[in-house]
Design a protein that fits this description.
Helix Hairpins, five-stranded mixed beta sheet, about 500 residues, about 50% helix, 13 strands, Heat Shock Protein 90
Length: about 500
């Protein structure tokens, strides 16, 4: 054993040794002898020597840490003090990281609450505008009156589309968007998309058409609503940037890495896309340069949203373009062929645990009895007039408490339309209370009416016992279709909600 005396630092390479000596001289954190005065077994000599070297090099590379090494405790080895200091430092940093992570989570929740509240606050008054305009458009009007109302309707739809784009982008950016695959007919979906944009194409004398490969099955399992959203974005853009010629949608089968995919093409004969514009085309808030910016306005979110949705569905999106000639957008999505077993399984998984039997108290030739629960007077009036136009007898409630009282009263309802955000008692609590009643109304179908659009809002409605969720603003046709779909889905019905055509 070497004598326990004054000992210098372990030998380091020449350039480092000078720096190490200087560092220790400036910050004499560890004593010259890094070992304690106690005897050290010979087989530990090399281990301690290596540890001394590591500590010295660490102090040179991270000099700020040397200031944090505490004073030695009685009988404590300097290396132990060093490790203790580093452990305390790491624990403090871990605590800081956990605190920062919690702040980030809270900020994300606050942002989500902001978007949810913004959606509700905007959609609630828009429901009144849409509803009244739709009701007026059902009346006998002269051409000038109809044109004015259709202008209001189109402007309101544009405002709603902007809001939807912002909310969708926020959900995608926050990774909160969830796909809802279900069986659907591809030909029907394509037809519906073209029907929506036919008037726009006709107004510009464009030929709008679609071709579907004959070898493809008729039905598929995928998120048809998100697929329709992507197709709608691309078709709308194609028509917007095409002044003459045609817009064509083509669908073919495609395989990639052993997966079945659908390949969609949306081709136009429009202005085309420059190389400079194409480089950032799928970035948010980007728009294609145009000589007519006012007619080609928008949020610039449509393609960014489409890209995110396509990738969420397991595919990719790209384009080919020649300025002045036209553009073709391509995208793929994963799918499964829809068989009878899948249809039945999907229906089973969508079925709610709450009672779904729809009692009918109308008798032959009677009118459906609907309980309308809505605190906003304008929306209450719109919904009441819409239901009456569908041939329903309407009973009104201004909050959830009134709804529960009416539900356990003498009237038995065929349907309950339930607003979600109300004073006294909200729609969630009211629905839960109605489902617990010992009364026929406990089994009455309940459709939520809400301006909240996030997935968790829908899940909360379904968990409370509601059968369906209808987002404001909604039209007469939306309500009719939702009731028809509700009637069709229920397999144990003894009656259904009758609607006037």
């Amino acid at each position: 054993m070497k004598p326990h005396g004054k000992r210098s630092l372990p030998k380091l390479p020449p350039p480092v040794k000078k720096e190490a000596t200087a560092a220790i001289a400036i910050r004499p954190v560890l004593p010259g002898n890094l070992r304690s005065s106690q005897s050290v077994p010979s087989d530990a000599e090399e281990t301690i020597r290596q540890l001394e070297k590591v500590v010295s090099e660490f102090m040179i590379q991270y000099p700020s840490h040397t200031q944090r090494i505490p004073a030695l405790r009685p009988g404590e080895h300097p290396l132990i003090a060093f490790v203790r200091s580093m452990a305390a430092s790491m624990a403090a940093k871990q605590e800081q990281l956990e605190k920062l992570n919690q702040e980030v989570i809270e900020a994300a929740k606050e942002k989500e609450r902001f978007f949810a509240n913004m959606s509700h606050e905007v959609r609630t008054p828009m429901n009144g505008i849409f509803g009244m305009v739709n009701l007026l458009l059902e009346m006998d009007l002269d051409p000038v009156q109809r044109e004015h109302l259709e202008t209001i309707h189109c402007s309101s739809e544009s405002l709603l589309n902007i809001l939807d784009d912002i909310l969708d982008y926020a959900k995608l950016n926050a990774k909160e968007m969830q796909l809802k695959p279900r069986p659907f007919e591809l030909q029907k979906l394509i037809r519906e998309v073209l029907l929506v944009y036919k008037a726009n194409a006709d107004s510009k004398h464009l030929h709008l058409s679609a071709t579907i490969c004959e070898t493809l099955p008729e039905r598929f399992v995928a998120d048809d609503l998100r697929l329709k959203q992507v197709l709608s974005n691309l078709t709308s853009n194609a028509i917007k940037f095409t002044d003459h010629g045609e817009v064509t949608v083509t669908v073919q089968g495609h395989r990639k890495a052993g997966r079945d995919q659908l390949l969609f093409q949306v081709r136009d004969s429009g202005i085309g896309i420059s190389e400079e514009a194409g480089a950032t085309l799928f970035s948010p808030f980007r728009q294609i340069d145009s000589a007519k910016p006012r007619s080609h306005s928008g949020t610039g979110l449509g393609l960014a949203i489409s890209k995110n949705l396509v990738e969420l569905m397991g595919g990719r999106i790209w384009f080919e373009s020649e300025p002045g000639v036209g553009t073709t957008f391509f995208f793929t999505i994963d799918y499964e062929p829809a068989g009878q077993e899948q249809d039945e399984d999907l229906i089973h998984r969508r079925r709610l645990p709450s009672p779904t039997e729809v009692p009918s108290q109308r008798g032959h030739g009677g009118r459906s009895k609907v309980l309308l629960v809505e605190d906003n007077l304008v929306n209450q009036k719109v919904a009441r007039l819409t239901l009456e136009q569908l041939g329903c007898d309407v009973t009104l409630a201004s909050n959830g408490r009134e709804a529960v009282d009416l539900a356990e009263g003498p009237l038995t309802f065929d349907l309950i339309l339930m607003d979600v955000n109300m004073p006294v008692m909200d729609g969630f609590e009211a629905t839960t209370s109605i489902r617990r009643l010992d009364h026929p109304n406990a089994a009455t179908p309940i459709i939520a009416m809400t301006g909240m659009v996030f997935d968790e809002d829908r899940e909360r409605c379904l968990s409370a016992g509601m059968n369906e969720v209808m987002t404001k603003p909604f039209s007469l046709n939306d309500l009719r279709n939702r009731i028809t779909e509700l009637n069709r889905r229920e397999e144990t019905v003894t009656g259904s909600v009758a609607l006037s055509s």
